[in-house]
Design brief:
Blueprint: H1 10-36, E1 49-52, E2 58-64, H2 69-84, E3 89-95, H3 105-116, H4 121-130, H5 132-135, H6 141-151, H7 156-163, H8 166-181, E4 189-192, E5 195-197, H9 203-215
Parallel strand pairs: 2-3
Antiparallel strand pairs: 1-3, 2-4, 4-5
């Protein structure tokens, strides 16, 4: 094949080099991104907060933000699905506070982790969602949430001390980073048996997904 005269010149050779380099880099990006873009599965570990069936066929992981209105709207749906599938479903909650838009989200996450040290993660979890409108816009959300701790029968002094423990914030931010690594961009984001799903619109849609997944196990 005859090489075009342009590519025989110095300028042409340089252009050809750039084209070849572009092809190589594009090819690398295409194949590499195809590999790294593969949906990652979320895995359960000993530090997770879990409720539901002990020998569950289906595990639902939620990355959530306690101040997020969408999370608050989904919570009744999640509870309904759990109630309707109590023998086959377990639920795992992972912290994903969107601190740039929800000023009290980190305080709320810390409150659930502090409550978990007294065996009441889920009680605080439910309280925060049930009363989301009361504390989320407060200028002193911590005081409001501390009152919830009292109502739950927690040792308030220990609760307050634990909320200031940096290890809890480190745990929360580690979960946040894991979510980012898994492709979580907003809340709530759900993973069903390790795989990310589109958010179902209704409890019936969610229930169908759970039952379909259980039937394959």
């Amino acid at each position: 094949m005859k090489i075009p005269k342009f590519f025989s010149t110095t300028e042409g050779k340089f252009t050809a080099f750039l084209i070849a380099l572009f092809v190589i880099l594009f090819g690398y990006y295409f194949f590499d991104s195809g590999a790294s873009g593969t949906v990652k599965n979320v895995e359960i570990n000993q530090n997770d907060h879990i409720r539901g069936a002990v020998n569950a066929k289906v595990t639902l992981v939620e990355f959530g933000d306690f101040q997020c209105p969408a999370c608050g709207s989904y919570e009744p749906i999640v509870r309904q699905v759990m109630s309707d599938n109590k023998d086959i479903l377990r639920i795992v909650f992972r912290q994903f506070p969107l601190t740039s838009i929800h000023q009290n989200s980190l305080v709320a996450s810390k409150a659930t982790e502090a409550a978990s040290l007294q065996g009441k993660f889920w009680e605080m979890h439910d309280m925060l969602y049930d009363k989301q409108k009361d504390w989320s816009s407060s200028s002193d959300a911590r005081s409001v949430i501390t009152d919830y701790a009292k109502a739950l029968g927690l040792d308030v002094n220990k609760f307050s001390k634990d909320m200031d423990d940096k290890t809890l914030e480190d745990k929360i931010m580690a979960q946040y980073k894991e979510g980012v690594d898994l492709g979580v961009q907003g809340t709530p984001t759900f993973f069903l048996n390790g795989k990310k799903i589109d958010n179902p619109q209704t409890a019936a849609d969610f229930d169908q997904l759970v039952k379909q997944e259980a039937s394959t196990q």
